[in-house]
Amino acid sequence: MAQPAFICRHKVGFAHCDPAGIVFYPRYFEMVNATVEEWFETGLGFGFAQLHGPMQAAVPTVSLTVDFKQPSRLGDILVFSLFVERVGRSSLDLRIDVNGRADPAGQSRLTVTLTLVFTQKGVTGSAPWPEDLRAKLESKITIQDHHDT
């Protein structure tokens, strides 16, 4: 089984839930973004403060799909396992599997696939990844073994 490039845990709080105590689906997107942001900072060494500040850059999400499997409830600990599927000239394809136990193989809650692009201030459209960041991204590409489906 492929190993994730990054694992992050989020506890479902009251602010994430609807009146029934179930996660309101847009709150998952906030947790996904927080996972990506934390990975850039702690996993790659390129925090969003550095990207948006001195580097005058950003990595907006241009595509996002979600497969919801089970609801999550107030107090649940969710495990976000991030996989790097592809690094392009200026884009990055990620998959994030969200499970409902402190174990990454726990109950599947949702799977998110997203594409980010690298942009720079003053450049219309996307821009190529800086070489140092690109090298770090490529080192995190998930290699699927023959037992994965």
TrEMBL record:
InterPro entries reported in the protein's UniProt record: HotDog_dom_sf (IPR029069), Thioestr_dom (IPR006683)
Domain Thioesterase positions: 35-98
Source organism, top-level taxon: Bacteria
Gene Ontology MF: a single term: thiolester hydrolase activity
Protein name: Thioesterase
